[in-house]
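Sequence only, no structure available. Ideas?
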Amino acid sequence: MAPRILVVGEVIDGAMSRLSGETATMARLLAGAAGGSALGLVVDPSPDAAAAELAAYLPRVDAVTALATAGETWAPHALAEIERLATDGVTHVLLGVTADARDLAGLIVGRLGWGLLANADKVTWDGSGPVVEASVLGGKAIVRSSFTGETGVITLRPGAVTAEPAGAPGSVDARAAGGSPAMPVTKVLDRVAEAGAEASLEEARVVVVGGRGIGGPEGFGLVDDLAEVLGGVVGATRASVDAGWIAYARQIGQTGKIVKPALYLGLGVSGAMQHRVGMQSADAIVAVNKDPDAPIGEIADLLVVGDLFDIGPALAAELRARRGG
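Reply:
I predicted one. Tokens follow.
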């Protein structure tokens, strides 16, 4: 049976997420190698714009208008559409590594009984199915895994592939959601916009991260300042979050967000294994730490040894001077 690979696109502020473009590119490449097909799915109260963007990468995209997702959790509604597509021949589902996608992956596994390969850094097709490579132990080892059956779910880390549109845009099939999902849904009672979260960590090209070394919540003033001058987004380590210095939504690592910015700047970040899992694929890694033997130095392109409260303000001042204020 020729594989049929489904990409579930995610919507951020009405537009397709950057990671969805990478996931769609990977699905198209895998389908080509396997002699199969790839298609996309967008489930949202207003899916049309994001579906049109996703169709630049795939020959067909289903745009499903699910008004209920405006007031209910998204994953059960997306699962309902995936169940319908599974009866239509979908064999594999590709998702980005995000909080919503993790929820959806778990529901697919529980509901359909499919296998799951998570946090893929690379995916290839070996003739009988997809083979996933994933880094473990903070990047110290690479594991290669495959499914024992003909169906499965893969979650893809940012940067596993460069997003490349197809030669010609695909079609968009618009339809309404087909009734209530079989799984229980959770009502969303309120949505709170987090201060400083105007840009998504996963989408950011520059991420400035505060670790335990910033000393307390007031230390994030320096992190905020450097993020502002660099046009970046503030992130944090688990230690900073657990200490109550910043909200969990800013956490990067195995139990937080996974990012792949063009520039990662870590201030007082030791480089614990669980944090490295979430940022080691950054194009350039710069760290400031008083300890020359800090683990972050093993993966940093540049390790600046010194007091971050001396180096940080000097760096911010120099950057402002170069841009003329």
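Residues 4-176 form a domain with the Rossmann fold fold (CATH 3.40.50.620).
Hope that gets you unstuck.
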